[in-house]
Specification:
The chain is of the alpha/beta class. It contains 20 helices and 10 strands. Strands 3-2-1-4-7-6-8 form a 7-stranded mixed β-sheet. Strands 5-10-9 form a 3-stranded mixed β-sheet. Helix 4 (113-129) packs antiparallel against helix 5, helix 7 packs across helix 9 and helix 16 crosses helix 17 (478-484). The N and C termini lie far apart (163 Å).
Amino acid sequence: MAIAVRSSRGGGSGGVGAGFRSLFSYRIFISALFSLLFIVTVSVLLTSRPPPTHHHSRLPSGANAYMHRTFLALNSDPLKTRLDLIYKQANDHITLVKTYAAYARKLKLENSKQLKMFDDLAKNFSDLTSKPSLFETDGNLDEDVLRQFEKEVKDRVKFARLMVAESKENYDNQLKIQKLKDTIFSVSESLGKAKKNGALASSIAAKSIPKSLHCLAMRLVEERISHPEKYKEESPKAEFEDPSLYHYAVFSDNVIAVSVVVRSVVKNAEEPWKHVFHVVTDRMNVAAMKVWFRMRPVEGGAHLEVKAVEDYSFLNSSYAPVLRQIESAKKQRFNLEKTTENVTKDGSNMKLKNPESMSMLNHLRFYLPEMYPKLHKILLLDDDVVVQKDLTGLWKIDLAGKVNGAVETCFGSFRRFSHYLNFTHPLIKERFNPKACAWAYGMNIFDLDAWRREKCTETYEEWQNLNEDRTLWKLDALPPGLITFYSLTKSLDKSWHVLGLGYNPSISMDEINNAAVIHYNGNMKPWLDIAMNQYKNLWTKYVDNDMEFVQMCNFGV
């Protein structure tokens, strides 16, 4: 029994040992098998050679490609890698050059030098890449040959890049658009600055007193002082208040300009003895003006009186609001300080710097009925006009109850009321039409009876008081004129009054020759050096060159 049991235990132990030995032998077999497969795989990879073509070879993809590249790098020739890079660079630039050449053809530049250069360069690249094999007979690369090949490719690449850089601007639309925008902006900025500087220079030239004009005034005053007996005051003539004659009002401090206006009227008048001129100037120039017309009397029997603003006693600061504004310290500070710093910033502020805007002579036109109480009609002429025809026809025009006869200046959307008045202000917005047509000062026939009936002077003063702070319009005579004579102005035929000879070089000579009055409004006055030559002789032919002081003062006419 005992023997049996011992035998069974011994037999169990031997079975377990045999199992372990079998498992160990199986593992050894599997390991040997994998080792053998690995060695075979490595041997195949190391003994295999990549295809001889480099620049267009097809490579495996994915994980196989990665392994392939890894083992290839271990076994590759560095010269072949370098050759691959050279081929790639050459092919890239061939594509680039061909693209620019194709775009040049699209733009129809077949005959251009640029297109020919692109085509030649692409052909040179193609010829270079299709050269015979660089390999030696044993399949290896010759480094000297490769170096020469690389140098040729680099030279062509450099030339291609230079050509593309020079031509890119012509083919890159975005670059062209941006450069054009930059150019437009730059030119616009320069133009804006040039306009402001030109406007400032023109304003200074226009408003400064020329040396010859100053000389003339001084010579005339000297004559008055040297020979007081010749220039005694004369009693007023009855013709000055005769309503049956043709009366003119000229308000100016420019002696030579007034003389041209008077001479041009008289020389073209059919009955000059029926014409009466009322010249008003400032206290500084009244003596010179009187001496001139005493030395050079008006021709043709016409009548002329010269007065100073101060001779009209009712024109004082308590009566005339504009005079009060002009004399106020606030207005003086605004003129001298504000406009000086702003004039170059905004060309529209130029008028604020204009001495005429700050002169009472420019606002006397609103007091004509008070200045000439016995007259029924009067023709207002600016000192920068020339009369070319007889003007008596203006007195015969039926103004249909209107006060002012004037030539309208609007065209399209230009020179409407909105250009002169501040329509953001409720007072202006409520009472006036922004599209109403503006008219011109310079030659205006006024019905003084209708003026008195419509109380135009009172209307003017009312609005001047409302514009104390200059929020309704800038300081000038035209805006209050537009307001004062709103719906009271009759439009005259444009041939009566042609404007723009002081700023517009494009006026037709036919239009000028057919005009009764031509107006040198603008900065280029005919007595200045900056006057436009094509119009200047129309003014200079009425200058009295025989007057000794004109010769002495060397007027450039």
